[in-house]
């Protein structure tokens, strides 16, 4: 089940909201837990046991870590912390990377070990990181231990952000798990945020995604340079509005139920360096790797060699986190190399250059990175990059290129403006200047977005979520 579906919007969500808000507060975590398990089980019933196992495991490990730390038995506290980390990473590694390792071993050794052909459990990369961070935070003393397994299970399975993030660290919602306050203002704010996210996903990401889907399936030997650039621009906008739209919907749903999730995107395509881009893109993942890997490794505090090593480790793992394929590892190494160069050599220079120039520099590198990301085959990705720069026998453009540009130019303009803070600044101006009628304008706009989104969902079948496969 996905948020952008008739089933979720007209059946699941209204039913859950009705039961949740008529129930006494002491039962609301239990209702959310059951609803979340039903939500997950609808699309992945055979793997629901993995999530339940992770819940019980990390609940137990958290209790034991807290108990032994309170009794100053650090060795046993470390032991149970190690159990949590080992089992969580073991489950993630088994389901996500087993076939990848077997395939590469067969190629290297010439063996014929049969593949396991495991289906990747939806959201395992997200909820594994969440549950593991809880045990680590309990060990560090950064959060209180949760003694109620229903409350902890609610945190792990919480359906608004269960299957595609943002990654919610327990310490950010610890107080709200048992003492949150639902209100009309939060409900209203949550509905608005959800509608905006739905519009980004359904009206923008889905529509531009069709263009990328068509171009990516063309024979590369026949793709003109202009068509190739239109394609990767389309993918760049699709992945941004797809994932940020999902995050907006998750944050909005969280507010409806009294949770305040942290932001996951902050206009990344406005960045003036790759360093800044990764402070603005998928913020929850970047924060997780920083807090639980980069800083514990020493960050930039132990000399240049160790600094480079730490960046390398983090970015190889960041790439592989996205998928069991060499193109993701290469994608991570691509950003690793740029970040090392920026941090050690050119970041100060970039700050002195005109903003328009540094934004072009950043967007150019990001577009190239999305080519590596989009193609599972490294060879296909490199061939696509060659086409972008006119290497080979491909034409610069043809009639189809011009047709695609002409028919999508308005959508591209909307996407360009929508990926910046211009709409936000414009709305703030209207709200401050015309305060008495701004709420009317806002509600008309939101009504139009929800009506158009539902009409699209009823009429169209193209409705992927790109980050489900991670």
TrEMBL record:
Its main location: membrane. It is a multi-pass membrane protein. Coiled coil: none annotated. It holds the Pfam family MBOAT. The keyword Transcription regulation does not apply. The chain crosses the membrane at residues 6-23, 77-95, 107-129, 223-241, 307-324, 330-350, 357-376, 396-418, 439-458. Keywords: Acyltransferase, Cell membrane, Membrane, Transferase, Transmembrane, Transmembrane helix. It is found in: Cell membrane. The keyword Nucleotidyltransferase does not apply. Belongs to the membrane-bound acyltransferase family. This is Alginate O-acetyltransferase complex protein AlgI.
